[in-house]
Amino acid sequence: MSEPAAPAPAHVPPPAGTTPGTALDALVSLMRILRGPTGCPWDREQTLDTLLPFVLEEAHEVVEAAERRDLDELKGEIGDLVFEGVFLSQLCAETGDFTITDALNDVRAKLVRRHPHVFAPDAGTADVTTPDAVKDRWDAIKVVERAEKGRERTSRIDGVPDGLPALLRAARISAKAAKVGFDWTSASRASMARKRLANLRLAARSSASGS
């Protein structure tokens, strides 16, 4: 009769951090232990695809806690959402694609680029003095960045993630459409849109019937 497998050696968890940097380092180290050969079987079997539902769930829980103004709950939910980012980054580090450091440096560089009125105020940004002006400049810089990566958008409403909840996605699309004058608050425009949609449906039925 074979001997039962020896239990995995106990790990000493990294100490809690006392600054944002040390706290993040501790979480990253903890994730490495969990994914290690003597770590947690569940954590070791996760993939990018299996983690996606958890990312969405944690994001929604952050929103719910914030809407309730439950700040103690919000604190925990923010931690959970950050952990999902650390988890995803650890998977990508294991495949040699990028690390959590790369991800953090990427967002840091993005924020600097998209806030020239703060970090490069002499670069023709004297007119960026209102929230609306900041948003317009942000969007313009984003268009340039996407073009440089060969990812130009073909529509003004591109860039709204398909995975958003239906109501939130509709609100984001409506906001983008309103920027180019398509405002659903106008009864005449809404009526015109309904008429055009009816005409399209009629044309589609006619085409399908061969008439």
- What portion of residues is helical? 55-70%
CATH architecture designation of the domain at 20-111: Orthogonal Bundle
Largest sheet: none
Instruction: Please report which band the strand proportion falls in: under 5%, 5-15%, 15-25%, 25-35%, 35-45% or over 45%.
Output: under 5%
Ends apart, CA distance between termini: 80 Å
Q: What is the N-to-C succession of helices and strands?
A: HHHHHHHHH
Uncertain segments are none
**Mean pLDDT figure:** 83
Structural class given helices, strands, pairing?
A: mainly alpha
- The CATH H-level homologous superfamily of the domain at 20-111: MazG-like
Based on CA atoms alone, the radius of gyration comes out at 24 Å
Shape, principal axes of CA atoms: extended
Extended strand count:
0
Number of helices: 9
What's the CATH class of the domain at 20-111, please?
Mainly Alpha
What name is given to the CATH topology of the domain at 20-111? Helix Hairpins
